[in-house]
Write a structure and sequence with these properties.
370 residues; alpha/beta; Rossmann fold; 8-stranded mixed beta sheet; 5-stranded antiparallel beta sheet; binds the ligand O=P(O)(O)OC[C@H]1O[C@H](O[C@H]2O[C@H](CO)[C@@H](O)[C@H](O)[C@H]2O)[C@H](O)[C@@H](O)[C@@H]1O
């Protein structure tokens, strides 16, 4: 695959499930009328290079613009087929996945937004369905399972609501093991009172808090902008901001963080993210969790990481470098990725998780895992 800039990627939002607003977020002024407009725009929207890991030459603004449907070219025909051949469906090729995992201990890592819940206009309404929750619960009964998200732990836990999981929030900078209620599960190796925790960016909390307030003030004049406090990192959403104002938003964010050399700017799906400069990402969280679970130096472990955006690429790369397990990218369109398999959308993720459980339940026949 060579010309990644030509690859389009979807970012169609799904109708939001109404839910009460939560703390730790701030929508800028005029949101209510803008949300209606945004929903209309979202209905016609099918592409988002911004979430595709695509490198667009020029400024960040160019890159933000590239996520507009007007600028993106869908990939069709031979180029698409070629990409799918290199990144086959983990469902259609499930037998291959099972064969690769045979005789090994599976550990499951799941991103949240765009993986367990569909992308929606309002981040507070990215609800996970009960069916999906049951699928994740089923997986966690058989395999150690972690949620790895850009969101803060409390927020992602509010959505997932499963105590038997590991959680790595704030892009892996806040890691927490299962609560005692989950100790009945055979795979929980940590002893009671031996809780797994890790907060490598703890010293940055005061500065993040300060910048959150400064960004909230700065973004107040940009209609539809939303600043979300994810504890160890911040998200500035521009999904509901007119494209004509993206430049002002980008400049405003940069002006605020200019005075903070300890912070850096990254980009997700219609979101600018501000995080500490420390060398820690979702890939580091994956490594930390595997070690905490006692898999360091073991050849018989098979981590499966499922995620949909560029921040998940750090975890895919770790798996590729370890030569272990499998990265699965959730996407309907070709994207530059280190993942080896694909699933099209959260409903396919659910089906894949169910298949994993079913295969494990037939474990005596040795279909999957140990
Ligand atoms: O690592 P993740 O669990 O995928 O979290 C990444 C970001 O997800 C959320 O934003 C994205 O999803 C929203 C809801 O569907 C959508 O409105 C937004 O445009 C997307 O960027 C979350 O709000 C961010 O804080 C996370 O960093």
């Amino acid at each position: 695959m060579t010309n990644h800039a030509g690859f389009a990627a979807e970012d169609a939002v799904t109708a939001a499930v109404p839910a009460p607003a939560q703390a730790g977020r701030h929508f800028s002024a005029f949101l209510t009328p803008r949300l209606t407009d945004c929903k209309k725009a979202a209905a016609a929207e099918h592409v988002d290079l911004a979430g595709a890991g695509v490198t667009v030459p020029g400024s960040w603004l160019d890159s933000m613009r590239a996520s507009s449907p007007r600028h993106a070219k869908p990939v069709v025909g031979a180029e698409h087929d070629d990409w799918m051949e290199k990144h086959p469906s983990a469902l259609a090729w499930f037998e291959s996945v099972a064969a690769a995992a045979k005789g090994k201990e599976i550990v499951v890592f799941l991103d949240y937004d765009g993986t367990l819940s569909p992308i929606v206009t309002d981040p507070d309404r990215a609800i996970m369905t009960d069916d999906m929750r049951e699928a994740v619960r089923g997986v966690a009964k058989h395999f150690p399972t972690a949620i790895v998200s850009g969101r803060c732990i409390d927020k992602v836990f509010d959505f997932v609501k499963l105590e038997e999981l590991y959680y790595a929030g704030s892009h892996g900078m806040d890691i927490r093991g299962p609560t005692a209620a989950a100790s009945e599960y055979h795979h929980i190796k940590a002893k009671q009172g031996d809780a797994v925790t890790c907060q490598p960016a703890a010293e940055f909390l005061p500065v993040i808090e300060e910048v959150y307030h400064a960004l909230t003030v700065k973004m107040a004049s940009i209609r539809g902008a939303l600043v979300e406090n994810n504890k160890f990192c911040l998200s500035v959403h521009y999904r509901c901001v007119d494209e004509a104002e993206w430049g002002a938003l980008d400049a405003g964010v940069r002006a605020v963080i200019e005075g903070y050399p300890d912070l850096r700017l990254t980009k997700g799906r219609k979101v600018l993210e501000i995080r500490p400069v420390i060398d820690w990402d979702k890939g580091s969280a994956l490594q930390f969790l595997l070690k905490s679970l006692g898999y360091e130096g073991r050849k018989d472990v098979f981590p499966i990481y499922i995620g949909d955006d560029r921040t998940d690429e750090d975890a895919f790369k770790v798996l590729r470098n370890r030569g272990q397990g499998m990265g699965i990218l959730v996407t309907k369109f070709p994207k530059e990725t280190t993942a080896s398999y694909t699933l099209r959308e959260p409903s396919e993720v659910k089906e894949f998780l169910r298949k994993l459980v079913k295969s494990k339940s037939n474990g005596d026949k040795g279909l999957i895992g140990k």
